[in-house]
Amino acid sequence: MRFGWLEIAIILVIVFIIFGVGKLPQVSEAIGRGLRGLRGQKEEAKQESGQGGVKVIRKLEDENTAGQAAK
Q: In degrees rounded to 5, what are phi and psi of residue 52?
């Protein structure tokens, strides 16, 4: 699903209303860290899938069960 400029503008306005201008740098920094983490995981998964897809699936399953155990 792709967002157009109007949808992005509406989302930004909502973010301004919710967080205010003062918190915006902190929010954008947290979003950036999250996106970098996702990219890193994606690249890691690509590298591991070249070594065998089973390893990737097992790692994801282990992370998923560890996350559920923490809840």
A: 145, 120
Query: What is the Cα 4 distance to its own chain's centre?
Result: 20
Give me the sign of the Cα torsion angle 10, 13, 18, 23: positive
Are 44 and 59 in contact, with CB atoms under 8 Å apart? no
DSSP state of 33: H
Alpha helices, DSSP H, located in the chain:
5-51, 53-70
Query: DSSP class of residue 3?
Result: -
pLDDT in tens, 19-33: 887 887 888 898 889
CA angle at residue 37 from 33 to 38, to 5 degrees? 120
pTM over 0.70: no
